Amino acid sequence: MTPASLLVADDDPVARDLLVEVLRREGYRVRPAAGGEECLKLAEGEPFDLALVDLRMPDVDGVRVLQRMAVVQPGVPVLILTAFATIETAVEAIRAGAYDYLSKPFRMEEIRLVVRRTLEAQRLTRENQQYRKELRERYRVQNLVGQSPRMVELYKLVARVADLDTTVLIQGETGTGKELVARAIHYASPRADRPFVVVDCAALPETLVESELFGHERGAFTGALSARRGLLETAHGGTCFLDEVGELAAALQAKLLRALQERAIRRVGGNEALPVDVRILAATNRDLRRGVEEGTFREDLFYRLNVVVIHVPPVRERMQDVPLLAQHFVERYAQTTGKPVVGLARETLTRLQSHHWPGNVRELEHAIERAIALASSPVLLPDDLPPEVGGGSAPAPQLPAARMTLEEVKRWYVSRLLEEAGGNKLRAAEALGIDRKTLARILDRRGGEEASEP
Q1: What is the CATH code of the structural domain delimited by 139-313?
Q2: CB atoms within 10 A of CB 190
Q3: Do 139-313 and 5-133 fall under one CATH topology?
Q4: What is the pLDDT of residues 31-83, one digit of tens each?
Q5: What is the model's pLDDT at position 394?
Q6: Are 169 and 305 a contacting pair, CB within 8 Å?
Q7: 161: which residues sit within 8 A by CB, 6+ positions away?
Q8: Cβ(337)–Cβ(380) under 8 Å?
Q9: Domain extents in the chain
Q10: Cα angle vertex 423, ends 417, 426, to 5°?
Q11: Domain 316-384 classified CATH 1.10.3720.10?
Q12: Mean local confidence (pLDDT), 332-349
């Protein structure tokens, strides 16, 4: 590992030599400078991880060095050295842009500790910046896969709404990629460097969703041993993505509406309104307008969310994108598994394009992942695909001979799909194009023993 490179500037040779000796013993690479002018020349000529600069130097003082360092080496922390360790000098140094300060006469352990702590903070800052850069690159709208007219229109709409703070409602069937669209909006927006927080409204238990969303105060309920921020607070300054917002209970809908209107939240068990600056992106696979008509979704919340609507098309309406999507997943899973698979045979593509894809992009991704795992050649062959994908070999399920009502047919069909999914409710729901809560309601109506959760 390359040692950190430090710049030490002090016109006092005794103090300078002491710092250089201590820091070199710690394994750092240290360049000394006898004044502000020499310090700036060194800074303009080579990169440094940290600078230690005396506040009072005769040629160029520490404040001017700080200001110039911010230009020639932006982001590099500067520790101010001062023999006048007062509150006033500390405030002066921090206001000038110093990360921290060290007072003379130096204490060896303090030097080691402050330098180590500053370099660690700098490392974490750089890692965080790199991570956010990678996220922006990964989720930019150009990385969404598809060239069909429906997807081209979607890209244009995402680009138009990204710079706004407008609430966006993303509609689409299960597995179409609504969260990817939400991330593309966030990472193309001015909030890209702030948090993107996902709230899975369908997965959170009703008893916990209020606390998860709004947070709670200490003692708000049994087990609340300390105050806790909710997801809306966590998203402060950034974006909160409410996935499957149509699954929120009526009481939570009212509280969410109030938070959106007031731009403030109240924790469970608390009375204080805490301001939050957050952009809301919501997604649903349900028809919320019908929910309003049926009384399951608040009309005022619907209009609050329904400012800009983006429809994500199902795969069956963008079949020309199937080869692009398939190749995208081939490259992804070939890389993660280390298998030398580079593409798909023509017959395999024909199979993929003849399938209806009720589970949409997610089902296609799982099919390619399975095919990569089973592949024994550089291209995916038809036999590598799951048998239900475009094979036409599986016999169609036969209804019982007895006359059945429409409700009974629905229950029978759900039962058959659940059997084929090996009792996995998530897979069965994806095949039906519904969420797990809707599937659970159908299972409750059909009675009998439910299959276990995945």
Answers
A1: 3.40.50.300
A2: 11
A3: yes
A4: 999 999 999 999 998 999 999 998 888 888 888 888 888 899 988 999 988 87
A5: 43
A6: yes
A7: 168, 185, 308, 310
A8: no
A9: 5-133, 139-313, 316-384, 406-446
A10: 80
A11: no
A12: 93
Q: Which two tokens stand for residue 88?
A: 């006033």
Q: Which residue has the higher pLDDT, 321 or 131?
A: 321
Query: Which residues touch 42 (CB under 8 Å, ≥6 apart)?
Result: 7, 31, 33, 48
Question: Beta 228-229 vs 168-171: how paired, if at all?
Answer: unpaired
C-alpha 260 chain-centroid distance: 21
Q: Are 43 and 7 in contact (CB under 8 A)?
A: yes
One CATH from 3.40.50, 1.10.357, 1.10.10, 1.10.760 for 406-446: 1.10.10
In whole angstroms, what is the distance from residue 286 CA to residue 291 CA? 8
Q: Which of 205, 250, 171 has its CA nearest to residue 453?
A: 205
Q: Contact, 345 vs 381, CB < 8 A?
A: yes
Q: How far apart are CA 319 and CA 352, in angstroms?
A: 9
Interatomic CA distance for residues 244 and 252, integer angstroms: 13
CATH pick for 5-133 out of 3.40.50.720, 2.170.120.20, 3.40.1390.20, 3.40.50.2300:
3.40.50.2300
Distance CA 364, CA 323 (A): 11
Q: Which two tokens stand for residue 439?
A: 């599937």
Report the C-alpha gap between 74 and 87 in whole angstroms: 26
- The beta-carbon contacts of 102-111 under 8 Å, at least 24 apart in sequence, are 102/52, 104/15, 106/15, 106/18, 106/19, 106/22, 108/22, 111/19, 111/22, 111/23
Based on the number of CB atoms within 10 Å of its own CB, is 1 exposed (0-12), middle (13-18) or buried (19 or more)? exposed
pTM of the model: 0.67
